[in-house]
Each structure stands twice: as structure tokens, then as C-alpha cells.
Amino acid sequence: YADEVLTAIGSLTARLHEAQLAHKDYGRANILFDKKPDGTLLLELVDLNRMHKGPLDMKAGCKNFERLPATPHMHRLMANAYAEARGFDADECFRLMQAYRSVQPGKIDDKY
Q1: Can you tell me the distance from the alpha carbon of 108 to that of 20, in angstroms, rounded to the nearest whole number?
Q2: DSSP class of residue 69?
Q3: pLDDT tens across 3-34, in order?
Q4: What distance in Å separates the CA atoms of residue 52 and residue 94, rounded to the nearest whole number?
Q5: Where is 42: in which H helix or E strand?
Q6: How many CB atoms lie under 10 A from the CB of residue 39?
Q7: Could you report the per-residue pLDDT of 36-55, keeping only the tens digit for each?
């Protein structure tokens, strides 16, 4: 259910950003998830003592994903869900997420 989790992360991030909140340590260790027997997916953010408060445009919002190691497929899922929830262009969100991630350490196969 990896695709479902990634889509949910994109949607959750969009809701946070719409509320003018951004996690300053938005990495994979701070996003917990579980799928219940009934199929319900639960996401939980931890380490919430490091939050930014203020408006986030498309560039700032997509930059917030930069610490999440992801393949192009993973970025596409998160970008699509994020863009849909915020009314942004999904292709531009995808491009920005990949660009911001490309300068971070911990890439998958030294690419993503």
C-alpha cells in the first residue's frame, strides 16, 4: 500500500500548508503510518516542536518535501495529491520536488 501512503502524505502536507504550517524536519523518520484491518490508513506526524508558521506558496510548499527520499514515481504521487489539494499544477509541483530533493544527501541510488 506504498502508493496509498505517498498519496496520503501529499494530501496531509497540503492540509498543513493550507493552515500555514510547515514541519521544519519533514523527513521519513517523522512520518508514521499504519493500515488498520478495516483498510483505514492512519498518518501521524511526530517531532512537532519544529514548525514554521506562515503562508506557503507553491515553491515553499514543494521545498518542504525536500528531505523525503523518493523515486520519480514517489514524487509524482505526492505531487499529484499535493497539487490537487492546493489547486496547483501537478507537473510543476513534481518538477519542483525533484529539483529541491536533488541537492539533498541520502539520495536513492545517488539519483533521487
Answers
A1: 30
A2: -
A3: 999 999 999 999 999 999 999 989 889 999 99
A4: 22
A5: strand 41-45
A6: 8
A7: 999 999 999 998 888 999 99
